[in-house]
């Protein structure tokens, strides 16, 4: 659906948050905007000012613009375009407390040639249809984890790529959603999942007594394997099929410790 327009400002961008996510405290919120490249424009060395406004409804029903943040960037030669981040923590936190005040944002960019490039396009990308939506502005939100955490004794081994440990051990493994083509994931773009690898000798203490008894009963059978001993969850912010921004907690996504079982 086409985005609504204010008479005096242009395109309004809406960022919807589910009720589940708005219960949390906003630690940080960044608005990412795609700035067009300088390959086809002669703007080398020029400065572009990006201004963000939130739409506010007045008492008489009229709509006004309230400044949120601004940033100035310098155009480099032969730039292919880039993402620019702007701090919108205060406005997102306000929306979380007062969802009805979320009437969208307006992003404006002005340069030496005004708000358009020599081809009549805006200096920033705000059209959902352009480039199949891959350059649509998005907000990345970091939330506070209010749950109490307790540190438990962890008998598992922690290793890295330089370790010479042959026993079952936890190794770093970074999962990058961009490499999977999962552009619907807003945050995190990548995270540390970790992986279990290494040998489990017959004398290794297994995770469950049942496994140890089976090994004793059938010594020629398959021995214990190096596997996750405990897993933890991650929080994810993503777009659903209707382009609504949702927040979910996914269990079993991070290896906390490894063991032979």
UniProtKB/TrEMBL annotation:
Residue intervals of the TGF-beta family profile domain: 150-261
Keyword field: Disulfide bond, Growth factor, Secreted
Pfam families attached to this UniProt entry: TGF_beta, TGFb_propeptide
Keyword Iron-sulfur part of the UniProt annotation: no
MF annotations from Gene Ontology: cytokine activity; growth factor activity
Coiled-coil regions listed in the entry: none
Compartments it resides in: Secreted
InterPro entries, alphabetized: Cystine-knot_cytokine, TGF-b_C, TGF-b_propeptide, TGF-beta-rel, TGFb_CS
GO CC annotation terms, alphabetical: extracellular space
SMART domains on file: TGFB
Stated family: Belongs to the TGF-beta family.
PANTHER family: LD29161P, TGF-BETA FAMILY
Name recorded for this polypeptide: TGF-beta family profile domain-containing protein
UniProt organism field: Clastoptera arizonana (Arizona spittle bug)
């Amino acid at each position: 659906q086409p985005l609504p327009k204010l008479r005096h400002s242009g395109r309004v961008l809406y960022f919807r948050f589910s009720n589940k996510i708005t219960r949390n405290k906003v630690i940080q919120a960044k608005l990412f905007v795609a700035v067009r490249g300088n390959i086809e424009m002669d703007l080398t060395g020029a400065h572009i000012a990006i201004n963000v406004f939130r739409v506010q409804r007045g008492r008489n029903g009229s709509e006004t613009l309230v400044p949120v943040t601004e940033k100035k960037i310098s155009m480099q030669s032969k730039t292919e375009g880039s993402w620019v981040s702007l701090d919108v923590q205060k406005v997102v936190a306000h929306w979380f407390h007062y969802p009805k005040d979320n009437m969208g944002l307006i992003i404006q960019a002005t340069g030496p040639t005004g708000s358009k490039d020599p081809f009549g396009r805006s200096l920033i990308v705000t059209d959902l249809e352009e480039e199949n939506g891959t350059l649509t502005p998005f907000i990345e939100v970091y939330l506070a984890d209010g749950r109490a955490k307790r540190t438990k004794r962890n008998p598992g081994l922690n290793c890295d790529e330089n370790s010479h440990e042959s026993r079952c051990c936890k190794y770093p493994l970074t999962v990058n959603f961009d490499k999977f083509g999962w552009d619907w994931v807003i945050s995190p773009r990548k995270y540390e999942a970790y992986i279990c690898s290494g040998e489990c000798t017959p004398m290794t203490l297994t995770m469950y007594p049942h496994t140890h008894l089976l090994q004793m009963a059938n010594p020629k059978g398959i021995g214990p394997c190096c596997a996750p001993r405990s897993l933890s969850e991650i929080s994810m912010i993503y777009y659903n099929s209707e382009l609504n921004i949702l927040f979910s907690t996914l269990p079993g996504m991070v290896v906390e410790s490894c063991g032979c079982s």
